[in-house]
Amino acid sequence: MQAYIARRLIAVPFMLFGMSLLLFWLLFLRPGNAALTGFGLVSPDQNKQAIASLEEEFGLDRPFFVQYGDWAWNAIQGDFGISLKNRRPVTPEIRSRLPVTAELGLLTVLLTALIGIPVGIISAIRPGTFLDGFLRIVTISGISVPNFWVATLVITLPAIWWAWTPLWEYVRFEDDPLNNLKIIIWPAITLAIATAAYVARIVRSSMLETLYSDYVRTARAKGLRERAVVLRHVFRSSMIAVITVIGIQLGAVLGGSVIAEQIFGIPGLGLLVFESVVSIDYTVALAAIMVFAFMFTLVNLAVDVIYTFVDPRIRY
User: Fold this and answer.
1) Backbone phi, then psi, for 80, in 5-degree steps?
2) Among the four 14, 61, 96, 211, which has the fewest Cβ within 10 Å?
3) How much is the pLDDT for 51?
4) What does the alpha-carbon distance between residue 261 and residue 184 come to, in Å, rounded to a whole number?
5) Would you call 304 helix, strand, or coil by DSSP?
6) pTM over 0.70
């Protein structure tokens, strides 16, 4: 196990290098630059001298590989550079926003497990019934509906029906935990709907494959209660698939946080990515996206390690 973890950790820098190079190249090819955005200019012809001066100051006039090399060398040392929009250090901004997105992601995963797993179990132990059909329709609808549409409905419908909206000024958890949860719960629910529905479908299908197997019939023949059979034997054998899906869906949660944070006004990394891409502030965009990539890489490693605790037969 230690050797496997060491190999995975050694591979992480190479994965991040390839991703950063690709992202830097895509942002480099994007029309316009931060100099134009900072001046609010719509055309380079408006003030060529001012734009050239800013491009020289920011280093935007240098070749691609020179710009990337400088950025990568500083990033390795923990310095993500200066924002091209407001000229403030990027690292403190990332550090202040990371806990917000981490809280949103953890709460979303918790809601995903609390909703998706029970729904999948109930649907699996009552196959072919009206309840199973209803839950299958609900889960398919949850997978099909886009997150941004759900977020829009969560904001607009209560405002129309009850003159109430879940939009408040954000409060940090350490300042006021209850008000923070009151604010963060709505984007978490929005993101959890699709992931919980997908988890429920996986739990149902994996449990149905196990529910009528020989060892389950043997457990029933021994006189075990149905609850013990379902939870201890059937569901436990499905845990590998469930853990895999939750780990994969966390990537979707991180990506969905860009839209959810923008709609609900949550000052996390997702909102920072959105704002930096719009303003062509590629130093901020690169830093935030690379933090997302690093988090997802660690989640994948954690999922592989958890496998060995769920199923002792798995060894690396």
Assistant:
1) -90, 10
2) 14
3) 63
4) 9
5) helix
6) yes
Measured N-to-C along each axis, helices 90-125 and 130-144 cross at an angle, to the nearest 10 degrees, of: 160
Task: Tell which residue, 213, 243, 230, has the closest CA to residue 308.
Answer: 243
Q: Computed from CA positions of residues 97, 145, 248, 239, in that sequence, does the dihedral angle turn out positive or negative?
A: positive
Rg over alpha carbons for the chain, rounded to the nearest Å, is 24
- Specify the pLDDT at position 115: 92
Asked if residues 93 and 83 have their Cβ atoms less than 8 Å apart, the reply is yes
Residue with the two structure tokens 């009206």: 130
Beta carbons of 278 and 30 less than 8 angstroms apart: no
d(CA 264, CA 170): 9
Supply 92's token pair. Answer: 């403190």
Give the Cα-Cα-Cα angle 267, 273, 275 (nearest 5 degrees): 75
**Residue pair 235/125 in contact by the 8 Å Cβ criterion:** no
Residues (pLDDT < 50) of the chain are 41-42
C-alpha–C-alpha distance, residues 73 and 166, integer Å = 43
Q: What number of other Cβ atoms are within 10 A of residue 202's Cβ?
A: 20
Phi then psi dihedrals of residue 223, to 5 deg: 95, 15
pLDDT for the residue 42: 46
pLDDT for the residue numbered 12: 80
What is the sign, positive or negative, of the torsion defined by CA atoms of 192, 193, 196, 198?
A: negative
Under DSSP, the state recorded for 82 is: B
Q: Which amino acid does the sequence have at 90?
A: V
Residue 126 DSSP code: S
Query: How far is residue 255's CA from residue 70's CA, in Å, rounded to a whole number?
Result: 27
How long is the chain? 316
